[in-house]
């Protein structure tokens, strides 16, 4: 360990020393919480001043009396001199009186007094002295200083909170004993309250702390105030936290023997079951614990922790065969294993539990565990097999019926899904968890129907039920992931936050949820043009032991990006792996993405016939979960291929498909129509819409196609402006192949780009308007409403609304009237 991170503090003391040597003496008070390093700083300064020419004097504070050599008055020191007093917070009143006198006359003498004290201890005693002093507050070490002190990273460094004393013991074999002794010494008579605060975890209410400490709330508040002054705890809003996590954890480890009594005190207060269980997880299993668990085990399992799972396992092991409490506890343990992410152990334990021939209620709970695991692995066949025996014996119970609906959906059998939903719906009013399952299943169906508003309503209902009526980690996660899918389809930037909310639970539960999370994140990043992040998600997803059908979509995302970036060999490898991957369950929703990748790769290879054949295959045959609806979202690249291959009829069929399952004002329809008809204004308008909706690849491609169309018509200047917009978009994504390809197209039409690249369209003023926007201006200036403009130009009202908003912004107009006036003045 080395003395680091205190250069500024040493400089303050060195400057004060230099001033004292020339007769400008002062009192310097260094304040800090315990362990922050006041003593080490004073020692370092003394060592640096040995050859300074000053008489160096250390004044010890004797404990417990607080007497010092200043208690009887000011000693005679040969001057120039420096006097160092550590632990001033322990000094008696006589010492402080002497320092007051010194402080009043020290300026003008070659005398420096440096005193160190704990910041929070009796601040009122030192208020007057501080007014005479140069006060220097010592802060915890920053991250760089911590790293330098430890000479490298340490897993416990953050828990020490930058406290040098704790950091210096962080890797000691007897650290727990040292830290406990240090904290107990500082806490004094309040150590029991401190131990109870550590056992209660990150935050403890004053009332809970009083209950487990066997004290009154008033006494606890007094103790908390004293310990806060000593830098041991923080209190805010009635909640008490041990300041340093390292101290909290070590105190808790050294106090494990009282966890049982803490649990009982919390239980007597009616604390949430999981808080009681967290204490019992570290205590021996006794009869009281078993009885308490038997009454509450079922409510513990849905929000379980690994500690609760271990507690239930120990309780099961402690009971003799035949104990009537054993079957319930065993099933609760299986459920806890599932929700704490130990799915393989949960599967084995559930299967073994079924062999014990439990009663019907417990059997159904075990079957639910097995069904959740099979569905979570996206293995519809295995899931349906779990409750086949139950199905043969009669109608499935509600929760199994809900799982049955999801399994049929994974299998792609929508009619069977609807039948299962109908069966489960009859019981949903009595079981909110069944309704949560059905909300998620219905949301998937609404997404397939492209009724995003209805899907969002189902997910909103599921969220409310999960919050107030029932809780199921898998269904919470499913709801979050479906929300992310929906937000991605709607190009909602909030999708990133939703994914990050889901990711920790996906990591804990594993199964197919984790690769699906990576896939959603990869597709989202692809659509938003954040391609490096997309590739990182692909890499993380493919590194998992099992992708549960998601390998194909992940490889397809990578192939798409690498194709656009010009890395054709690696793109082909990913495309081939995508074709070879098993596709089942949720991955079937992404099959159209894989088909698009295959078609684009054929086009890149120059085999337009093969590319068009793939497009025709997509249009004419079943692809994805619902062919008629799953093709619509990926029609844009397919239309591009059809147009490039001269297949206008095929392109029109794709556009008709989009019209059937999309809003008429969907930018993709306008883009594809402009592409087929070589309508530059539609292409430029679509490019702007794509940019506004955070779909940068589509925006750049639309501008690219407009540039080529303009060049083909001999409008080279306009082509350069459109290309500037395209190149900016492609460059942001490092899509080098697209940049080179467009440049080659333009050169074939005789359009030469300058050495500095084409000039872009201005962002403001009349020259910033596209042709489509100018036509809108003309009609608005004539007094037409947006609806009338839409009818005249055969556009949707929403598209005209967007045009008018952009025009007002570009021309710095506050109203349509001002726009009309500016247009007439310009004319």
Automatic annotation (TrEMBL):
CDD domains: LuxR_C_like (cd06170). Pfam families: GerE. Residues 762-827 form the HTH luxR-type domain. The keyword DNA-binding applies. It comes from the Bacteria. PROSITE patterns: HTH_LUXR_1, HTH_LUXR_2. The keyword DNA-binding applies. Keywords: DNA-binding. Transmembrane segments: none annotated. This is HTH luxR-type domain-containing protein.
């Amino acid at each position: 360990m080395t003395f680091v991170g205190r250069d500024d503090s040493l400089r303050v003391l060195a400057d004060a020393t230099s001033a004292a040597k020339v007769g400008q003496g002062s009192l310097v008070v260094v304040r800090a919480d315990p362990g922050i390093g006041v003593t080490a700083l004073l020692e370092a300064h003394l060592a640096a001043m040995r050859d300074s020419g000053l008489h160096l004097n250390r004044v010890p504070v004797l404990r417990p009396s607080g007497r010092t050599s200043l208690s009887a008055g000011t000693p005679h020191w040969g001057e120039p001199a420096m006097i160092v007093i550590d632990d001033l917070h322990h000094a008696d009143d006589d010492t402080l009186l002497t320092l007051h006198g010194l402080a009043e006359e020290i300026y003008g003498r070659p005398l420096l007094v440096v005193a160190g004290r704990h910041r929070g201890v009796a601040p009122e005693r030192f208020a007057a002295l501080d007014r005479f002093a140069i006060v220097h507050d010592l802060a915890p070490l920053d991250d760089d200083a911590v790293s330098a002190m430890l000479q490298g990273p340490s897993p416990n460094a953050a828990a020490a909170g930058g406290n040098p004393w704790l950091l210096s013991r962080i890797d000691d074999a007897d650290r727990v004993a040292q830290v406990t002794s240090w904290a107990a010494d500082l806490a004094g008579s309040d150590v029991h309250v401190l131990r109870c605060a550590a056992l209660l975890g990150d935050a403890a209410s004053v009332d809970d702390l009083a209950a487990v400490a066997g004290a009154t709330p008033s006494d606890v508040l007094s103790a908390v105030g004293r310990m806060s002054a000593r830098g041991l705890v923080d209190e805010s809003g009635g909640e008490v936290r041990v300041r340093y996590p390292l101290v909290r954890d070590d105190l808790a480890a050294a106090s494990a023997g009282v966890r049982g009594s803490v649990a009982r005190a919390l239980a007597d207060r009616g604390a949430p079951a999981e808080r009681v269980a967290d204490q019992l997880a570290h205590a021996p299993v006794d009869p009281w614990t078993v009885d308490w668990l038997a009454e509450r085990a079922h409510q513990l399992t849905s929000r379980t922790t690994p500690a609760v799972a271990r507690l239930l396992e120990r309780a099961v092991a402690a009971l003799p065969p035949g104990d009537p409490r054993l079957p319930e506890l065993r099933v609760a343990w299986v459920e806890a294993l599932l929700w704490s992410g130990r799915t393989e152990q949960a599967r084995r334990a559930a299967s073994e539990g079924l062999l014990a021939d439990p009663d019907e209620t417990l059997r159904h709970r075990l079957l639910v565990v097995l069904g959740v695991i099979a569905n979570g692995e996206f293995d519809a066949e295995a899931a349906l097999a779990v409750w086949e025996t139950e199905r043969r014996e009669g109608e499935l119970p509600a929760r199994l019926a809900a799982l049955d609906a999801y399994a049929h959906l994974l299998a792609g059998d929508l009619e069977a899904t609807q039948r299962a939903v109908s069966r489960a719906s009859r019981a949903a009013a009595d079981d909110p968890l069944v309704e949560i399952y059905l909300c998620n299943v219905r949301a998937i169906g609404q997404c397939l129907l492209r009724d995003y508003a209805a899907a969002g309503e189902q997910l909103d209902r599921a969220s409310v039920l999960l919050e107030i009526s029932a809780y199921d980690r898998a269904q919470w996660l499913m709801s979050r992931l479906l929300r992310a899918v929906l937000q991605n389809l709607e190009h909602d930037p909030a999708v990133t936050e939703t994914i990050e909310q889901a990711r920790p639970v996906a990591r804990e539960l594993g199964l197919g949820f984790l690769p699906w999370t990576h896939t959603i994140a990869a597709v989202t990043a692809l659509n938003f043009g954040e391609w490096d992040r997309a590739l990182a998600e692909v890499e993380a997803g493919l590194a998992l032991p099992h992708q549960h059908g998601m390998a194909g979509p992940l490889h397809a995302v990578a192939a798409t990006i690498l194709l656009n970036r010009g890395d054709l060999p690696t793109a082909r490898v990913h495309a081939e792996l995508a074709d070879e991957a098993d596709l089942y369950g949720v991955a079937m929703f992404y099959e159209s993405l894989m088909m698009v990748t295959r078609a684009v790769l054929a086009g890149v290879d120059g085999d337009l016939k093969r590319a068009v054949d793939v497009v025709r295959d997509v249009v004419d045959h079943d692809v994805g979960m619902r062919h008629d609806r799953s093709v619509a979202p990926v029609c844009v690249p397919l239309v591009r291929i059809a147009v490039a291959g001269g297949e206008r009829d095929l392109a029109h069929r794709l556009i008709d498909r989009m019209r059937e399952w999309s809003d008429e004002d969907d930018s993709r329809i306008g883009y594809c129509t402009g592409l087929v008809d070589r309508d530059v204004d539609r292409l430029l308008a679509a490019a702007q819409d794509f940019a506004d909706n955070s779909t940068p690849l589509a925006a750049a491609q639309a501008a690219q196609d407009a540039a080529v169309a303009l060049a083909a018509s001999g409008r080279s200047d306009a082509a350069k402006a459109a290309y500037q917009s395209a190149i900016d978009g492609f460059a942001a994504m490092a899509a080098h192949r697209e940049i080179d390809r467009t440049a080659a197209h333009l050169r074939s039409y005789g359009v030469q780009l300058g050495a500095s690249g084409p000039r872009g369209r201005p962002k403001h003023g009349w020259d910033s308007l596209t042709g489509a926007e100018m036509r809108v201006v003309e009609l608005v200036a004539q007094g037409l409403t947006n609806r009338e403009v839409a009818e005249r130009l055969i556009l949707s009202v929403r598209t005209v609304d967007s045009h008018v908003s952009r025009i007002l912004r570009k021309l710095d107009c506050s109203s349509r009237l001002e726009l009309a006036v500016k247009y007439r003045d310009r004319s």
